[in-house]
Design a protein that fits this description.
This protein is α/β, with parallel strands linked by helices. The protein is about 30% helix and about 25% strand. Strands 1, 2, 3, 4, 5, 6 and 7 form a 7-stranded mixed beta sheet that branches. It binds inosinic acid (IMP).
């Protein structure tokens, strides 16, 4: 069975491929000759995942899944949410994004936040959504240098380490992406 993972990110692709049963032939966007970045124009995280999975299904007639992730901060009405990658304007400038987040949280008592990963699966007769959520809080200073994005300021509930102070294995055991991914894998393994 051929299945596309709608990503250009080689690290994400290798990680997921290693988790899937051998009978699934996993293809990346590059493998199917899709060189463009599929635009994320939806106004929700779930919507963007659906949009990317549908794009591949409609243009390449292949089964596909796609993911999208956002950080939702309670006292900022769910911001940065769907804008997590470009919160400070420039896409994927993590330092600027963190700086803006810490500034917007100055003086706020409630620093609770959660990461949400949505994975949309679009197969011939099935369209399914898997959600992985990790609750935690935004700490006041950066700690740790593993991971990426908001990891140095996100401390998951029940832990005294940020994601950036954890190993990738630890993070994926308790983290949003790991949770959503395990649901997808369990579904595909049936
Ligand atoms: P993407 O949908 O996986 O590309 O994630 C969108 C943005 O959310 C990224 O650019 C990061 O800023 C942030 N993000 C996603 N996943 C994580 C994570 O696991 N840790 C920290 N930040 C993340």
């Amino acid at each position: 069975m051929k299945l596309v993972f709608a990503t250009h990110n080689k690290n994400k692709f290798t990680e997921v491929k290693a988790m899937l049963p051998n009978r699934i032939e996993l293809l990346s966007l590059d493998d199917i000759g899709c060189n463009e970045d599929i635009e994320e124009t939806a106004d929700t995280i779930e919507g963007n995942a659906i949009l990317k999975a549908n794009y591949v299904r409609n243009n390449y007639n292949l089964s596909c899944f796609a993911d999208d992730t956002g950080l939702e901060v309670q006292s900022l009405n769910g911001e940065p949410g769907v804008f997590s990658a470009r919160y400070a304007g420039v896409s994927h400038d993590s330092n600027a994004n963190i700086e803006k987040l810490l500034k917007n949280l100055e003086g706020k008592k409630d620093r609770s936040a959660r990461f949400k990963t949505a994975i949309a699966l679009n197969m011939e007769h099935e369209e399914i959504m898997f959600l992985g959520i990790c609750e935690g809080e935004i700490i006041k200073e950066l700690r740790g240098d593993s991971g990426f994005g908001y990891d140095p300021v996100f401390q998951p509930k029940g832990f005294d380490k940020t994601f950036a102070e954890m190993t990738l294995t630890q993070k994926s055991e308790i983290g949003h992406r790991g949770k959503a991914m395990r649901q997808l894998i369990e579904y595909l393994s049936k």
